[in-house]
């Protein structure tokens, strides 16, 4: 079974020599920084204030209550079916739809959906829908809880939720078992529904791991909401620049980058030859280690940049955390592209007969997986390209924030520590993805 085998491309699959891909990726990021120093002397990104209003008919359609209601009902129905299949569907993983939906269609596929459509998950989040229904039953406003959510909570619950999910996805050998998926879905849902009853619907915005993640990804979509509430067309970098700061935001980014780094590490020859693939202890330590490496290196680089630019080092990591979003998205595309394209086909097959009763609801039950749909060379090229593009966009975002924060005479040198760590992430990411 290929479920969770992230990526097929390797060194031998690249259409160019591996050393050229490695050095070329790092040099591209450095040249981007150099060009920005000459061509981008002042801040250009306006964040939430930027954007040109959409045509009235399109804005009305996208904000239609009927459209939103239908989308919420459909997503809630799919969620309930997935839970039911995990509980009462086929016992064999390869025949059970639930793990394919959770790990491929949802976790990998929604990254692409968010890039193309925007932060749609926060509008159709089934936990929000259930919370609203429970609130109406209890005759109280879903936006208001029994207690106010402290500002100090920040993004910490989202960071914890993401850490639990990536651990489940990458470490235990029983991660794809239907029972594992069922327990996770029910436990995760109950925790957030209880918290939302206490703190109100605002809980989801900062604390629900998947809403936080996919909303960040959706900020790279050219359609967004301006600070006055109007839907606009904008430079996607303005969406990233408008990302609200908060406690735990840097840790969220470290979990996202560190988990993909660990995924790449486990596919290297060194890891395979020296570590038992079924060891939960070693896997947990490896995952934790890569997350800590990202957290420490980015924090140290941002603090050093703050000192060089005359900015309080304590606030610098949060101030530049938004620049990691495109990097995280690039890593996600690189790691999950082949998984979504190839193993995602199995989800279409199983959707026709979710309970294994011989049904063929959508006419796809007899389909097979076409492993020639995309070549390994194309996968390797997309992997490298996604990482490089993500880092270049990250460098641009960090540069714009720097020239708008520190004196002009200090802007260039203040960015050097962040540039150094981003080049390291770029080269390391390419090496792990294509390493033998």
Essential attributes:
three-stranded antiparallel β-sheet; globular; 436 residues; single chain; 20 helices; mainly alpha
Explain what you see.
The structure is a single chain. The protein has 436 residues and is mainly alpha-helical. It is built from 20 helices and 3 strands. It has helices spanning 18-39, 56-62, 65-88, 97-106, 109-117, 121-124, 126-137, 156-170, 178-199, 202-207, 209-218, 236-241, 249-265, 269-274, 280-308, 316-320, 325-351, 376-403, 408-414, 416-434; strands at residues 52-53, 223-225, 231-233. It has a 3-stranded antiparallel beta sheet, with no helix packed on it. It is globular and about 70 Å long. The two termini are 21 Å apart. The relative contact order is 0.16.
Number of helices: 20
Helix content: 55-70%
What is the rounded distance between the termini?
21 Å
Give the biggest beta sheet: 3 strands, antiparallel
Which structural class fits the helix and strand makeup? mainly alpha
Mean pLDDT across residues: 88
Instruction: Supply Rg.
Output: 22 Å
General shape: globular
- Within the largest sheet, what's the order of strands? 1-3-2
Order of helices and strands: HEHHHHHHHHHHEEHHHHHHHHH
Number of strands: 3
Strand content: under 5%
Q: Which stretches are poorly predicted, pLDDT < 50 over at least 5 residues?
A: 7-12
Topology:
Elements: H1 18-39, E1 52-53, H2 56-62, H3 65-88, H4 97-106, H5 109-117, H6 121-124, H7 126-137, H8 156-170, H9 178-199, H10 202-207, H11 209-218, E2 223-225, E3 231-233, H12 236-241, H13 249-265, H14 269-274, H15 280-308, H16 316-320, H17 325-351, H18 376-403, H19 408-414, H20 416-434
Antiparallel strand pairs: 1-3, 2-3
């Amino acid at each position: 079974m290929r479920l969770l085998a992230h990526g097929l491309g390797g060194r031998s699959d690249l259409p160019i020599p591996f050393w050229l891909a490695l050095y070329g990726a790092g040099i591209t990021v450095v040249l981007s920084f150099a060009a920005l120093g000459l061509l981008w002397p002042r801040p250009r990104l306006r964040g939430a204030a930027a954007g040109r209003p959409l045509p009235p008919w399109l804005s009305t359609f996208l904000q239609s209550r009927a459209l939103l209601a239908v989308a919420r009902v459909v997503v809630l129905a799919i969620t309930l079916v997935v839970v039911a299949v995990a509980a009462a569907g086929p016992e064999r993983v390869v025949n059970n739809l639930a793990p394919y939906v959770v790990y491929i269609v949802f976790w990998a596929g929604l990254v692409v959906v968010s890039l193309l459509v925007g932060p749609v998950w926060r509008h159709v989040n089934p936990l929000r829908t259930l919370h609203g229904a429970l609130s109406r039953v209890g005759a109280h406003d879903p936006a208001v809880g029994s207690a106010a959510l402290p500002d100090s909570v920040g993004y910490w619950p989202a960071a914890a939720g993401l850490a639990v999910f990536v651990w489940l996805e990458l470490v235990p050998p029983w991660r794809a078992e239907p029972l594992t998926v069922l327990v996770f879905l029910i436990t995760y849902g109950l925790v957030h529904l209880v918290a939302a009853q206490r703190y109100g619907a605002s809980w989801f915005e900062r604390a629900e791991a998947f809403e936080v993640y996919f909303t960040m990804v959706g900020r790279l979509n050219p359609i967004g909401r301006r600070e006055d509430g109007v839907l606009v067309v904008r430079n996607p970098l303005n969406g990233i620049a408008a990302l609200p700061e908060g406690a735990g935001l840097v840790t969220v980014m470290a979990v996202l980058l560190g988990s993909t780094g660990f995924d790449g590490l486990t596919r290297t020859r060194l890891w395979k030859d020296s570590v038992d693939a079924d060891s939960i202890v070693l896997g947990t330590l490896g995952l934790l280690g890569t997350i800590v490496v990202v957290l420490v290196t980015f924090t140290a680089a941002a603090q050093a940049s703050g000192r060089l630019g005359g900015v309080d080092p304590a606030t610098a990591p949060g101030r530049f955390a938004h620049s990691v979003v495109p990097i995280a998205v690039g890593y996600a595309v690189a790691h999950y592209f082949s998984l979504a394209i190839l193993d995602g086909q199995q989800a279409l097959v199983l959707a026709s007969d979710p309970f294994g009763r011989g049904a063929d609801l959508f006419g796809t039950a007899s389909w097979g997986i076409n492993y020639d749909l995309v070549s390994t060379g194309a996968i390797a090229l997309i992997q490298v390209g996604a990482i490089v593009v993500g880092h270049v966009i990250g460098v641009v975002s960090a540069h714009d924030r720097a020239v708008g924060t520190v004196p002009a005479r200090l802007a260039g040198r203040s960015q050097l520590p962040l540039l150094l760590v981003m080049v390291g992430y770029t080269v390391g990411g390419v090496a792990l993805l294509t390493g033998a």
